[in-house]
Amino acid sequence: DPELSGEFSRFMTWADDLRTLGVRANADTPEDARQALEFGAEGIGLARTEHMFFGDDRIAKMQRMILADSEEERRDALEALLPFQREDFAGLFQAMKGRPVTIRLLDPPLHEFLPHDAEEQEVLAERLEMPVRRVREKIEQHAEMNPMLGHRGCRLGVTHAEITEMQARAILEAAIDVSTDDAPVRPEIMVPLVSTKAEFDHQRSVIDEVAAAVFEERGKEVQYRVGTMIEIPRAALRAGEIAEAADFFSFGTNDLTQMTFGFSRDDAGRFLPYYVQENLLPADPFQTLDQEGVGEMVSIGTNRGRKVKPKLQVGICGEHGGDPASVKFCHDTDLDYVSCSPFRVPIARLAAAQAVTEDDR
Ligand code: PEP
Ligand code: MG
Predict the structure, then answer these.
(1) Counting ligands in written order, which one lies closest to the CA of residue 194?
(2) Residue 48, annotated ligand binder?
(3) Which positions bind Mg(2+) (predicted)?
(4) pLDDT tops 90 at residue 4
(5) Residues 319-357: tens digit of each pLDDT
(6) Rounded to an integer, what is the distance from CA 230 to the centroid of its chain?
(7) How far away, in angstroms, is 282 Cα from ligand 1 center?
(8) What is the dihedral of CA 123, 125, 128, 134, to 10 degrees?
């Protein structure tokens, strides 16, 4: 009903006038980005890059990169992926027309890109012109007993800096291509799964070096920022020193919940409903932020970070960013924005406005 939607959008404008908390969306395709804008998102708070490698034309290159025998071979495979990534990021920047876009470097363990089915492994071996036995051996080397605590996030970028280099280059080249005087693109590059300042420093220097090279080659610069996910309890505790080097923080409350409780993200569908039913937990902590424990990690991280950098931009991009009670918590903790799935953006806008009306109670 167009009339209803007119009234609804007027009502939402009032909510927007009231709220002080920003609302961004988690989006990694131009379609999702446009959807997010229609729902009123002010930017992209999290563009996950892992899904970008699964397309038919990319996955083979990704697998070649992962199973390469030398850094040189890995670099060749990454070079073949660079144009795809440049196009991915340009699409997001174009859709967002100069609004903030936070792009997260590759996060999942690499085995997620490899085939585990025997037949698919044979196809891969043929494509790589490698004996099947050798391919299976290599895939085995990438197996992880505990993948969420394993070789993922910035740990990949530390051991394989060339992955970070390729992604940083794609982001910065796309930003230069899409930038106009009216709508300059100022990408926010986000490092996942940091637990020490040394890891962040490592990734930041890789990115800064790439930026200097790209700006020199192109004879043009863009403003970019490098920040970090705070999603490991240690990072929240050491937020003071990490803030010395990071331009922004974004709390990954999915992993932070997992690692603070020691619950696997897969437990959400297993015994956690029983915990809720028996009142051992007030709610599923992967849906509604556990304010007493995980929330304390968020407050500690924010306060320690801002003590060092008073204007540090702080957001959250876990599932909680679209949950009303958690949005209120983020408002009360003085975060700059929440970022959630596009379809939850209207709820987050309303919850952020409601939080203001409850401020002085
Ligand atoms: C998180 O951990 O909260 C997060 C946003 O990242 P992902 O869900 O991709 O691990
Ligand atoms: Mg995470």
Answers:
(1) 2
(2) yes
(3) 231, 255
(4) no
(5) 999 999 999 999 999 999 999 999 999 999 999 999 999
(6) 11
(7) 22
(8) 170
Distance 180 CA to ligand 2 centre (A): 32
DSSP letters for 84-125: HHHHHHHHHHHHHTTS-EEEEPP-S-GGGGS--SHHHHHHHH
Tell me the chain's radius of gyration from C-alpha atoms.
21
Active-site entry in 154, 317, 330, 340: 317
Query: What is the spatial distance between Cα 298 and Cα 303, in angstroms, rounded to a whole number?
Result: 9
* Residue 231 counted as an annotated binding residue: yes
Residue 293: what pLDDT?
98
- Structure tokens that stand for 11 in this block: 């009502």
> What ipTM does this complex have?
0.99
Indicate the top mutation candidate among 24, 26, 48 to test ligand 1's pocket, ranked by most ligand atoms within 8 A of CB: 48
Looking at every residue in the chain, the average pLDDT score rounds to: 95
Contact 50 CB / ligand 1 (< 6 Å): no
In whole angstroms, what is the distance from residue 83 CA to residue 81 CA? 6
Q: Which of 109, 112, 101 is closest to 157 using CA atoms?
A: 109
Tell me: pLDDT of 1 over 60.
Answer: no
Whether residue 121 has its Cβ less than 6 Å from ligand 1: no
Query: Which of 222, 189, 202 has the alpha carbon at shortest distance from 158?
Result: 202
Phi and psi angles of residue 185, each rounded to the nearest 5 degrees, phi first: -95, 125
Give the mean pLDDT of 16-40: 97
Structure tokens at 183: 């709508």
pLDDT value, residue 7: 87
For ligand 1, say whether the CB of 297 is within 6 Å of any of its atoms: no
- How far away, in angstroms, is 7 Cα from ligand 1 center? 35
Kindly state if the Cβ of 102 falls inside 6 Å of ligand 1: no
Residue 70 Cα to ligand 1 middle (Å): 31
Residues 6+ apart with CB under 8 A from 120: none
Q: Are 248 and 186 in contact (CB under 8 A)?
A: no
Region 219-229 average pLDDT: 98
Please determine, for residue 2, whether its predicted confidence score (pLDDT) is greater than 60: no
Element (H, E) at 46: strand 44-47
* Structure confidence by residue, pLDDT tens digits, 169-188: 999 999 999 999 999 999 99
Is residue 3 over pLDDT 80?
no
